[in-house]
Structures are given as C-alpha cells and as structure tokens.
Protein 1
Amino acid sequence: MEQEQREAEVVLLDLRRRVRNKALEDERLEASLRAFDDALDLQSHELALAYQKDQDTIRRRFAELREKVRHLLHRSHRSPASRHTHTPRSKILH
C-alpha cells in the first residue's frame, strides 16, 4: 500500500509539473496573440489613414479637372468664334 501511495505521488507530481508547464505555454501564446492582434489593429488603422489620404487626393484631382473643363466650357460659350476652334486634348487635361 505504501509503495502504491509513493507511485501515485510521483504520478501526481509529474501531472502537476505538466499542468504548470502547459499553463505557462498558454500564457506565452496568449501574450503573443495579443501582440499580434495589436499589430493588426495598428496596421489596419494606418491603412485606413493612407486610404483616406489617397481618396482625398483623387477627389481633389478630379475636382481640379472638372473645374478646368467647366472653365473651358464657360470660355467657349462666351466667345462664339472659339466654338469652331479645336483645343488640343493635352491642353484640356493639363
């Protein structure tokens, strides 16, 4: 009986050691996953800012282009002689 108790204690100590090691491993993994999640959150925020900046640039450029077109149209409506002249495409786009 005493031998069985000692063997059981050895098994119990081994199981406790394994559980402790597994708990430490789980804590390290959770910390790593939290750090990864934080990095993803930061990256998504940076990408959102870059996307917004790109959108703003695109909107501004199209607004400038529309303004140039409106200006050319307004100028051509003011001068009847200019209706028959051809404006090179490169001048409209620049």
Note: The chain has one domain: 2-93.
Protein 2
Amino acid sequence: MAPHGFYNNPFVLFLCMLCLLTITACADSRWDSMRDKFSQKEPAEWLNHGGDLYNRRYASTETKISPETASKLRLKWEFYAGKDITATPAIFNGTLYFPSWNGYLYAVKASDGSLVWKQNLQKLTGLNATGFVNNVNWTVSRATPTIAGDMLIIGIYGPAVVIAVKQATGRLVWSTQLDSNPAGVVTMSGTFHMGSFYVGTSSLEEGLSIEQCCIFRGSLSKLDIKTGALLWQTFTLPDNHGERGEYAGAAIWGSSPSIDVRRNLVYVATGNLYSSPLSIRECQEQQNNQTVPTQPDQCIEPDNHSNSILAIDLDSGKIKWYRQLGGYDVWFLACNNLSTPNCPPGPNPDADFGEAPMMLSIYVNGTMRDTVTAVQKSGFAWALDRNNGSLVWATVSPIFT
C-alpha cells in the first residue's frame, strides 16, 4: 500500500540536532571506489535516505557516539521549520537538506543551524497540490533529498513528480512527471549512481474510495540526472489499460533503492495490491473455502509482483529475478469499512514492504553469502541470495503484527 495520510501535529515543531557539547558527531557514509566521482567527498555525508548505495542506514566509521557517551548528548542548535520534518536530512559539504510539511525545501548549515536557502515547492515548480493529502492543500515533499553531483533530486507528494534543484541555491533545474494518475505520489528517496537516478512511484488511490478500486500501478524509474529524461520505467504489475477491476497497486514507496555494482542490479520491494482481476478474486474465494490452502498459492500469477523483492537490471530495466513474499493481499479503504461489501475476498493483511532491501554480506553455516534483506509490515524479515533470489533465511517478530 501507499503510506497513509500524514497526521499534522498542531504544535510548533523544531528540527533538533543533538550533538555532544565538545564533540561533533561524524557519520562517514562515503561510497566506495566503484561509486560515482561526485559521491567521493569528505566524511559526515549522508547522500540519500539509506545513506549510501547499500541502503543500510549505517554510519560505518562513527566512533564518537556510543552507549558510554550518549548521556552527554545536548542540544547544539535548533531550526524552526514551521511544520513537521519527517524526512531524514541529506548531508553534504557541511549542509543539511530537507523538506518540511509547510511546503518548503531547506538548506541549513550543519555547524550552527543557520539558513542557507529555502524554496517554496509550489512557487518553485508551479505544481498545485492534488488535494488528496489530509489537511494539506499546498505542494509538499516527504522524501529525503538525494545528492547527485551539484544537485538535489527529490520527489513530490502529489502529483508524482521528481524535481532537481541546484544545491547552492535551490534553483529548479528540471521537473519530470513519473505517473499521470491523479493520486500518484513519490514518497521514496531515490538513489544516484553513474549519472542516473533511480526512484519508485506510489499512490494514495487505495485510500480514496470504498467503491471499486483502482488503476494505479507501481513502478521503478531511471532518470538522466542532467536532463531528467526518463531512460526506462519498469512496472510491477501487468497493464490494466486504465480499467478498474484489474491489477492495481504494488507501489514502491519506502526508503531508497539499493544498487549492486558488481551484479549491475538495483533492488526494490513492493506493496500490496489495490485490486485484482475477477479470476483471481474467484480463485481466492475458492481457496478460502478449502480446509487446507494450496502451497504455493495458486492465486498468485507470475507477473503479479506485489509484496515482492525485485532485482532489476540497471541498464535495461528488465526484471532479473523476483520473489513474491506476501501471497494474495488485496487491500483498499473498503477493507477498513464494515458497512461496505466491497472489500475483496481475504486475507487482506496489507503486508507490504515499507522499505527497499538492504545489501548485506553475512556468514551462513560458515559460508559468506551476499544477500538482500528486508522486513514486511507483517513482521516477517527475509534474506535472499543476491544472485537468484533464493531464500537464505526468514524470521518473524515474537508478536505477529
């Protein structure tokens, strides 16, 4: 599913940077020698939501903040942004970049919190809010900006547009629409690699109706960072030709894609279905009437990439392998409304992946395995082999969610 509508806190909120009074914390997220020349800069950089190509959110060389020093953390500075800041800031060359729910994109000095520049997204882009975000009637972003050369690239939370601005000034360089669905959004923070930008699309469509739903299909796009030109776009579901009652959903909406330079792959994970064809709904109803469900799930067709981890070729956009990990899962607003019969046959767990996979190399029975690892809203965590998507291990939280 796409993330639910954002809850606006009525109180004044601040971006608070906690730091030791005598220590400046460093998060060394430098990308290795195989990464872009633009990405090889000084320490204390955080280049997208995941921090690097691996999407680990791990500051590998941080040594100054520890359980022993945590009690000494004090407020160093605060920046008033008018409304909530829910995106992880990007950090580059001593500057923090982040959007706020007041509709602005900010650049702030990391040393003292002073403003470098700010841009009103609606004025900057000429885009009007879609009106589908609860209590928000202005153009906003909720994604972490991505550092790409001398630019920032960031998605808009409706319409489904990605923009690039100059890091130094916030001046608009280009704007590219990734999906024409009226409820389309870009909530994912993208990943920059070798002159290209990779990002997924999502939608608020599933939360707008208790009638028949929907037509949006999730996708991953590759853009040229110089021009914003769309180089390829890979959809997660078969074409529904704009017809309701067919496949819809399987959004790509969380964290940032991980990129495997060695295998020339980008890894993403997807959300639940918003709708499915009649034949699939009938299949599921038949399954529900059986004492023992079939394994594997006969209602999952090969081109249904909902609740899945996908490995996609960086050059062609072709799916190299995939693993469907959620079974039949159709959810939209009607499934929360007991007064309507429109929720399709269950189960309807809404168990999408809210994050892209992390790239981890781990020892399994004494052998080093290259894996991608991700956790679902169901509480299940999965580790898959990067070569073919085969299962390395799976586990579930003690309390099923």
Note: The chain has one domain: 14-396.
Protein 3
Amino acid sequence: MSTHTEEIQVERRGKAGLITLNRSKALNALNHSMVQQMTQALEQFEQDDSVALVIVKAAGDRAFCAGGDIAVLYEDALKKGTEGAEFWADEYRLNVIIANYSKPYVPLMQGIVLGGGVGISAHGSHRVVTDSTRIGMPETGIGYFPDVGGTKLLAEAPRNLGKHLALTARQVGGTEAIAAGLADYFVPDSAVENLVEKLAETGSVDVISEFTESPAEAFNGVIDQMEQAYAPENVQEILENLDALQADGAEWAADAAKRIRRNCPLTLTVVLEAFRRHNGVELGKVLENEFVMSAERVKLFVCGA
C-alpha cells in the first residue's frame, strides 16, 4: 500500500504502516482532507495482516502538527457553513479510532504539537517525544477549550499538571509531556530516523527502549508546588495559591498567574467544569460533549464574544 498526496503520505515500510503529515508550510495543521485520509489509512492498516504497527510522523523539522486549520474553520463559521461541524465530527472520530486501535500506534512528536496535533498523538499507545518537542493545548488563550479529548487527557494528568497546562495555555517540552501523561518515551531527535527503520524492520515496539534516554527533571522540580497550587476546583482559589507562592519567590507561579489572568475567566470556569465531568469518562462520550461545546464556542466567536 502506498498513497502520496500533497498533504499526507501513506506507505507500508517493512512491517510498519507509515503515515507522514506533509503540509510543513502550514506546520502540518490538519484540514478535513487530511483527517479523512488518515482515517482511511488507519482502517486499511488495521485490516492488513502484514502490518504489525503504525508510525505517524511529519515532514519538515518545525512541527509534528500545529492543530486544526482554524482559519478555514473560522471562515466557514462566518458563512454559516457546515464544514466546521463535519470537520470536528470526523476529527473526533479519528481520535476514537486512535485510542481504540488494535495495533501499536507510534506517533513521533517532534517539534510543535498543539491542539489537534495532541489529538492524533496523545491518544496513541506508544507516544514518543524528543528534545525538539513543544506540546500544548493553547485553546484557552483564544477563548476556546482543550478539545480532541483534551478535557479528559488533562483532567486525568497526574498531580494537577493538566490544570496548569490548560489554564495557562503554556507549551512545554517532551520531559513535561511525559510527566503530564501525554507521552511515554523520550528519544533524541538524532535517533528518530534509526528508530523508524528499526520499527519497520522488526514490527515490534519493544525496540523503542533501545533508543530512549532518561529525560531531565520535569517542570524544574516544582511539581510538588504545582500539585498544591492547582488543588482547588475554582480559578480564584488557584490564583490565590499562585499569588502566595509568588510572594515567597516562586517565579513559575508568577508566570502562571500572569498567563491565567490574561485568559477569559468564563472560558477557564468552563474548562474546570469539563474536567470534573470528564475525568474517568469513556473517550467517545467526552468527544460527544466536546462536539456540542465546540458548536457553542464557534457561535460566540462569530458574534465576537
């Protein structure tokens, strides 16, 4: 099987199915066609007994995937079209396919990984980050919420790290992604191509461990403080905790509080409520709820809210 388009490349390499996002000038941002092609490729690879695992990587050296193509979706909303709803429905379906995939799914999360890029990677079974990884769910910074199952992924992140990532809309490195439960393995960028070849040769994810390195300490050793600061279930109390830590000289807390305060308070409240509702809930149900939430937020965008 080999399919190449301007936006996505699909091939069988040895014992691996290989999907390459090929829209590097747009930071491999997902459009509807890419979502559909990726879904079709995964379904075909799943039925192909000669394919032992699937690898997803990206062309270029800047981004794995910078999310959905927001400009196209916004223009569609202004015209009161249906493309946005159709895109989200198919994108969310793809997220469920990835989460429930019967074969090992190995995303190579090099460079920028944002929004929809998290959706096509963090739901996978064997998630690889590198020294160039910059991962985040930046939606609260534009008055939106972490979708593609983000309200589940981040709600279930250990030690309240998901609250930190969602409320601040920060991007973090691969080490932090592993600490937050969004990735599993740290592999140097210089070893990624050799990893791809070894996976294709053996068809076994056991070889990933041959290329991994121990990541540095995540979040500069302040996870204990973060866990306590983000323990409350409302934004105001979280900010009070961060302000108290800032007064004691915690620079990370000052930065976090500044980021949170410049985001929409209503959006942050909606996000925390979604966290409460979606923690431990089956992904399909979470995405059904997020689909409804997406439609409501788009209406507000168009109205200028």
Note: The radius of gyration is 19 Å.
Protein 4
Amino acid sequence: MVNGDLAAAAEKLGLWYVPDPGSRASCTIGGNLATNAGGACCARYGVTADHVARIKAVLPDGRIIHTGAATSKNVAGLNLTQLLVGSEGTLAVIVEATMRLRPKPVQSATVVSVFSSVVDAVAAVVAIRAVAEPSVVEMMDNATIVAVDAMTRMGIDDTAGALLLIRCDGPAAEIEAERCEQGCRGVGAREVYVTTDPAEGDALMEARRVALPALQRYGSTLLDDLAVPVMRLPEMIDAIAWIAERYHLLIGTFGHAADGNLHPTIVFDATDPDATARAYSAFDDMMNRCLALGGSITGEHGVGELKRRYLEPMVGAVELDVMRQIKHAFDPKGILNPGRAI
C-alpha cells in the first residue's frame, strides 16, 4: 500500500496516519517499515516504528512470525517488531502490518520565517524547541530556495539565507504558533508570516515538498540523509558549503531542522566522469564530517549499499559484529537482500 493512500483512507474516517515522507505519494508502507522512514511530522510524533503495532513476516526458511500486539503496552519477550522495522529487508520479509492511527488534529497553524543565514535559522529552532512543540520544522538553504522559487514561482525571497516552515497542531495550535513567531523574531528573522488557514498552510508547505524535484531540474542528484545534534547544525551546514566550493558543485540542503536531519543534495552531470567523481568525493567528505560532529550517517533513508562502508566507523567493530550475528541468526544462508545494510 502507498503511504499517501493509507493517509487518505484514514482521513476519510477523521483519522490521521502520521509518518509523511516527502515521497508519500509514491513510497509504500512496506518500504517505510524496511527503512523506518520518518517525514516532516517526526519532530513531534516520531517515525514509522512509533506507529506500528504488529507485523507478520516470513523468515528466510519459510516460517511465519507474528510480532507485537494490538495493545498500548506490550513487554512480552524481545521486541521483534522494532528489530524488523528498519532492518532493510535483511532479516525477514514483512508481508502484513497493523499500523496505528491518531485522531486528526482539529486545528493547525503554519509559520513561515525568513532568515539572513542558516545560523540564525538554527538559533530560531533552538529557541522554538524551548517554548513550543511544533509537529513540523522544515528548513531550506539559499540554493534550495532559489531552485524551488524558479520552479514554483511562489515569490519566495531568493536572497534569504534560510527559510523555516513550521506547523503547529492541536487545541493550542495558535498559541504555539505565536510562541514560534516570537522565537523567530527574537533571533532576528527578516520576515515572519503566520496563517491559521489549513489550505494556505498546505500551500506554503508545498515549497518544502518540491525541494528535491526543484533541484533535480538542474541535473542528476546524489541525495544524502544525515543527522547531527541540533546544536551542531551550523557546523554541518558550513561544512556542506565548504565542500560544495571545494568540488565546484551545487549542493542544496533542506531537511527536518527540529531533529537535526538534513538532506544535502548534490547536483551534477552524470554523463561527465569528472563531475561524477567530484560528486562522490563530496558525498564522502560530508559523511566524514557528519561522523566527526557526532552524527548519524542516515536519519531515515537507511544504509543500503551506498553507506555500508560508513557503518563501522559510526557504530564500531563490536556493535557491527553483534548486528551481523543477529543477521546470521535470522538468515544463516544470507539470501535476504545480500550486500545491503550490514
């Protein structure tokens, strides 16, 4: 089932399926479970693993397991549900899942804030987190803003250093939005706009959802997915800018600012061997800098094949060995998704 289809079906019942990856119109629940996908709303509501109650999966030897329970609390044995979620198809094949739904928020408010620099935007994120709990805090840098405005003609200030798109929901949505506005203005936001119109809010949020397609108009893209502690965001973004200059590449950065999850997107000419080599060297430098800042090599997209070589530097040899022992216990013949993740 496609993520967006589940969300639409839930909405008809006045309910809400929360995890909302940028690709929700095409990504599947099975894929979301395999990678433990997040989305814009994960700042407040968590990722896919926080919204799954039960799983039915087929083991490599053909046996079927049913994990979890349709209860709010369950500590019976090891939590195999959480182990399978995010395992990237390396342990078992998930064939069925019971997902948790929430009541649809009755109120929402959206805040758009323009900043002269990414440093100011991150300062606003820190200020906001101290006084409010928005469900969405999305950030775009200047390169992404320019690409999005060129594609959508939304009239975004393309001289801005960064843009924050914030959404608050629930009974206190307007109060929380006011606090977010104050937090942004308190660190020197150039402009802040607030709306309580859900349709207008959705239209404003579309700027973030089209960030990747907007950058893809300029060439092939190598999309990264890294996470750093929120206070280290300015250092990571400065490093990305330096890497872009070093390798003479366009890198547009956007992502989920409230939890430090960034998607720096390298744009290059895939038909040019030199440009391709520079793109992958830039990717390598970003990964190394992320690790140096105490970050994670992947916040929500998974390790796959591309990031396997960064896994041991992040988790260490002992933890990686434990992961491989777990893999062997489930799949002693190594037939499930070989060469991926671990």
Note: Residues 235 and 293 are 8 Å apart (CA to CA).
